[in-house]
Amino acid sequence: MEVTARAPGKIILAGEHAVVHGCTAVASSIDLYTSVSLRLRSEGEGTIKLLNDTGLDFSWSIARIKEVLSHLGSPFSSTPTSCSLETVKSLAALVDEKSFPESKIGLASGVYAFLWLYTSILGFKPATVIVSSELPVGAGLGSSAAYCVALSAALLALSDSVKMDVSQKGWFTFKAKAELVNKWAFEGEKIIHGRPSGVDNSVSTFGNVIKFKTGVMTRIDSNMPLRMLITNTKVGRDTKALVANVSARKLRHPGAMSSVLNAIEAISDEWSTIIQSHAVDDLCLSANEEKLAELMEMNQGLLFSIGVSHASIETILQTAMEYKLASKLTGAGGGGCVLTLLPSHVSGAVVDKLVEELESFGFQCFTAGIGGNGVQISFGHSS
Amino acid sequence: MEVTARAPGKIILAGEHAVVHGCTAVASSIDLYTSVSLRLRSEGEGTIKLLNDTGLDFSWSIARIKEVLSHLGSPFSSTPTSCSLETVKSLAALVDEKSFPESKIGLASGVYAFLWLYTSILGFKPATVIVSSELPVGAGLGSSAAYCVALSAALLALSDSVKMDVSQKGWFTFKAKAELVNKWAFEGEKIIHGRPSGVDNSVSTFGNVIKFKTGVMTRIDSNMPLRMLITNTKVGRDTKALVANVSARKLRHPGAMSSVLNAIEAISDEWSTIIQSHAVDDLCLSANEEKLAELMEMNQGLLFSIGVSHASIETILQTAMEYKLASKLTGAGGGGCVLTLLPSHVSGAVVDKLVEELESFGFQCFTAGIGGNGVQISFGHSS
After folding, report:
1. Tens digit of pLDDT for each residue in A98-122?
2. In this predicted model, what pLDDT tens digit does every residue of B288-306 receive, in sequence order?
3. B263 contacts A256? CB cut-off 8 A
4. Which of A200, A221, A281, A352 is catalytic?
5. Which helix (H) or strand (E) is B86 found in, with range?
6. Which residues of B touch A322 (CB under 8 A)?
7. Of A118, A271, B23, B163, which one's alpha carbon is 20 to 30 angstroms from that of B236?
8. Burial of A322 (0-12, 13-18, 19+ CB in 10 A)
9. Where in chain B is the domain with CATH 3.30.230.10?
10. Which residue of A has its CA nearest to B292?
């Protein structure tokens, strides 16, 4: 029995950083996915295997896992529970037994999350799990959340507690259990990130657009077709330091900074109004796209003014501007990814030329539709 | 008898564009000057000559000038009066008689202003007037105001109504008559610009720093030594169109734009507080410079967000940023000039390297001290 779950990445459309100071931000799913395929194996094989598309290949005997996790009691609760620090240590011991390539040590916490979610949801059934992803890691596109969401969905789809019609064909959404998937995924995110906001896993689970402010998330139904070019600067950044620098600047220049944050909030509010509006024709769509392009330019200026831009980001802005396309950084800034709005009238040839130019600088480009489905699953029937 | 007057150019330190919407802006003099040398000639020679350092060379017979301006009555009022449209037409006729190089046709209104100020203040005395300038024309550095101020000062210094001690040596300020110089210069600016704000001629006349808001100017005494690199993009721009675009954007995004303008106002207020503070030591100076650099970065982000930056400006910003120096556009934007703060700890070698790099792009660089003297005069005694 095999199931594949795929969960989308996310981008912040507006309001990053300001959200830390109580303002509204708007996030959206993108149609770039992390997929998790889960195949249950016969009991006799006695191992749980985890493979991914970058060459990671782990295998644990069920007996060894049971031994290490025995102090936790069994069976585990089937409702989402947090992984204690003590349990993380036990899981780390399981991972330490394997040789982890130095360059991928940052993924270790993803393996802890895997072991926690797997054993919590499926117990000790032998299986092979294959993870593949279209999302760059650590670039602010929510790759870890997409991984946790896809993993949770795949595990729940084959768990005894969830009854699924496995004869369904093709991709389908996992509506009835979406809340449960989201909660488990959040537990996984906590293992990976410590104190995630919950926005990334919610966007990945439910798809579409989410507005969030002071911890409260509101789902927005957008039917506006919207495409972005996402350019990964490949410049790593320290999100905590960037957030701290903004707070320090706010202390030094309280008047100016609070007005800047108000301006960002107004931009987030305009974004959510525009993408909820129903464009009645191409003219209306095009007018809305122009407004959004202008909002992106404004938001980028404000992000520059709070000090979170970066030379690599500015290079991308300037390059896109030569094609009269508006851009803004997305996420923490200081590197990471840049969004460039691709209005409906822009030809593929123009986009290709822009991508070629950006990639000649060493950047990595993705084109993505905005606000599509959340997590979906598909049953395969390989023996 | 010869007198030379020199008047400084100006930069906007903070608040450009926002000032149009009722916010505070801060302008400062720079130690780059336009000089006007005026030598009275013996009555027998019967001409008024105007020469400048770009090769303009005009000469009118006193008789011809009298003929054209006869309908105005004589003698002229020695208090500053506006030049009527009809008079401008008469002056234009005098200029049209001369061959004006096509490339310098934009300077014609400067010649009208010359003829108006000359005949109003000195009447029909024969003289040679030589204008030279360190200021680029049409780049937002107040070259026309510096010209009108220096010209008015030179004319007033040799007029019968102003009694000067011509035996004074070296440059001296023209304090007692500064208000009169400023008023005459404003009349000249009106001939050149139509509806000038009066800020440029006030800064050029009085020097130092001026804060202005809704038409009210307040002089600020700053003792902070401050140096800027001024880079001229050489990109011409349409100030009226830029101002109109900002207003249109404000109509489209009223919430965000009004917060952006508030942020700019807060930055202007901080600027004027900081430059009025008396730095007690180098450490304090350096802390203030850091604050100003941050304010410039913030202001630039906000100017970008209202849509008045330009690719050439962004190139300069990025180049200066490689040297960890903060910059902002000054004036209308869309080209024009960019300011880069040169903190006291920055070595001449670093500045030279930056200038070399910027000039390799085809830009033109000036280093300037901020907030120095206004108009000054000096008597020569060439026979």
Report:
1. 877 777 777 889 999 999 999 999 9
2. 999 999 999 999 999 999 9
3. yes
4. A200
5. helix B85-96
6. 311
7. B23
8. exposed
9. 2-221+372-380
10. A253
* Cβ pair B311:A322 closer than 8 A: yes
**Residue B269 annotated in active site:** no
Residue A78: pLDDT band (50, 70, 90) is low
Domain with CATH 3.30.230.10 in chain A: 2-221+374-380
Q: Between 3.40.50.620, 3.30.230.10, 1.10.3720.10, 3.40.250.10, what CATH number should domain B2-221+372-380 receive?
A: 3.30.230.10
Is the N-terminal amide bond of A8 cis, ω within 30° of 0?
A: no
Q: What is the DSSP string of B124-155?
A: T--EEEEEEESSPTTSSS-HHHHHHHHHHHHH
Query: How close, in Å, is residue B310 to chain A by CA atoms?
Result: 9
Q: Which pair of tokens denotes residue A27?
A: 């996030």
DSSP string, B301-324: HHHHHTT---HHHHHHHHHHHHTT
Question: Residue B383: what pLDDT?
Answer: 39
Q: Which residue of A has its CA nearest to B256?
A: A263
Q: Which of B53, B96, B160, B200 is catalytic?
A: B200
pLDDT, tens digit, for every residue of B93-108?
888 888 777 777 778 8
Q: Identify the bridge partners of residue A14 per DSSP, sorted by sequence position.
A: A26
- One of 2.60.120.260, 3.40.140.10, 3.30.230.10, 3.40.640.10 is the CATH number of A2-221+374-380, namely 3.30.230.10
CA A296 to chain centre: 21
Architecture of the CATH domain B227-369: 2-Layer Sandwich (3.30)
Residue with tokens 């001369």: B98
For position B93, what pLDDT does the model report? 86
Q: How far does CA A142 lie from the centroid of its chain?
A: 2
pLDDT given for residue A223 in this prediction: 83
Start and end residues for every CATH 3.30.70.890 domain found in chain A: 227-369
The amino acid present at A360, given as its one-letter code, is S
- Give the ipTM of the model, two decimals please: 0.90
Q: Sign of dihedral through CA atoms A352, A358, A364, A366? A: negative
Q: What is the pLDDT of residue B337?
A: 97
Structure tokens at A358: 């950006």
Between CA A223 and CA A207 the distance in angstroms is: 12
- Tell me which chain B residues have a C-beta less than 8 angstroms from the C-beta of A303: 301
B334 min Cα distance to partner chain A (Å): 14
Find chain B residues with C-beta within 8 A of A307's C-beta: 294, 297-298
Instruction: Dump pLDDT digits (tens) for B313-371.
Output: 999 999 999 999 999 999 999 999 999 999 999 999 999 999 999 999 999 999 999 99
pLDDT at B105: 75
Residues of chain A with a CB closer than 8 angstroms to some CB in chain B: 249, 252-253, 255-257, 259-260, 262-264, 266-267, 269-270, 291, 294-295, 297-307, 309, 311, 314-315, 317-318, 321-322
User: Which of chain A's residues have a Cβ under 8 Å away from the Cβ of B294?
Assistant: 249, 252-253, 307
Structural contact between residues B369 and B30, judged by C-beta atoms closer than 8 angstroms: yes
> CA dist A161 to A77, A155, A253, B80, Å?
11, 11, 55, 93
Element (H, E) at A172: strand A172-173
CB pairs under 8 A between A and B: 116
d(CA B364, CA B235): 11
**pLDDT per residue as tens digits for the range B104-149:** 777 889 999 999 999 999 988 999 999 999 999 989 999 999 999 9
